[in-house]
EfeO-type cupredoxin-like domain-containing protein
Amino acid sequence: MKRLLSIALLSFAATTAFAAADEFTLTIKDHAFEPKEITIPAGKKIKLLVVNKDATPAEFESKPLGREKVIAGNSTGTVNIGPLKPGRYPFVEEYHENDAAAQGTIVVK
């Protein structure tokens, strides 16, 4: 019984570690992205968690990626990306896209 429990715990730990490696977090606060640049691996699907710490809605948009997601105030949205070829893929917080702080880049290597 102990052996079965140990195998189950190891499998869960391996699955959790794999999921964490494929998730990246982008935060919006005061309509600014943090970090402004994220590097992700080429040829892999990733999950981008966009955490909006502002009280108002925000919109993650990337025309090169073909992604658009409205995130309610004080909540988190998920944007699935990839697999992508190496390159630079800009994104904006559409409601404030003319502010430099509301612009960023996903770098794929």
